[in-house]
Amino acid sequence: FSDVNEAPLTGESLPVDKAVAIPSRDDAFGLDAEMLAFVATIAAIRDPHRKLLALLHGMEQRGLFSLDYDESTRTARGTFHERQGNCLSFTMLFVALARAAGLTATYQSVIVPPTWVNDGQVVIANHVNTIVRTSFDEDTVVDFNIREYEGRQKSRKVDDDYVLALFYTNVGAEALLRNDYAVSAARFRAAADIYPEMAALWVNLGVLYARHGLLEQAESAYLYALEVDASAESALANLAVAY
Length: 243
Hints:
Layout: H1 25-29, H2 33-43, H3 48-61, E1 68-69, H4 76-82, E2 84-85, H5 87-100, E3 105-110, E4 115-117, E5 122-124, E6 128-135, E7 138-142, E8 155-158, H6 160-177, H7 181-194, H8 199-211, H9 215-228, H10 233-242
Helix pairs in contact: 2-3, 4-5, 6-7, 6-8, 7-8, 8-9, 8-10, 9-10
């Protein structure tokens, strides 16, 4: 990884249980029969704008806009049935339903202040929303942030690999907060395999190293987070703690 010492970033210094199950791509994004039935009539609508409105109305009628917003990261299926999750969970659910209905839906990463927990050490959820193509030259943004979305916020389109890595990073961070270190390490590794250019991943991995007293490895992880994103304030804060 560029100028950063590679060895500490492999996770080999951590106690890793190879039996830990990693949610698959289908586990994260997939739909079940009930969800497919929910979008079946919506899929028959040809006009994308009307189709989007029908999807939003259908979700509202089903009570999916009365979801219990919390900081837990759930799969699309889990969010649909449990009606709980964070903005990433809601966005994954919406994109899965929109695509099943025949809409062109793309993920977008939005630059907002990160959510820190555990005294500012662990980073949970970089904000994502959805861009839906509603006409030949028009896109509509669908955003599930509890804070009002502002169009002037910097954003960029990201692919499904980025979102899957963000999902792994979040569920890994949540395992870290539960002191479930084997699960945390396995999920951070899975995220790094898919999208290593995610600063939050390395910040959280650094916290995991630090909790095991591996401060040199933690330092390397934080430095790599800063190499990926020089504005990663959580990496700077944790680096100061490590020093």
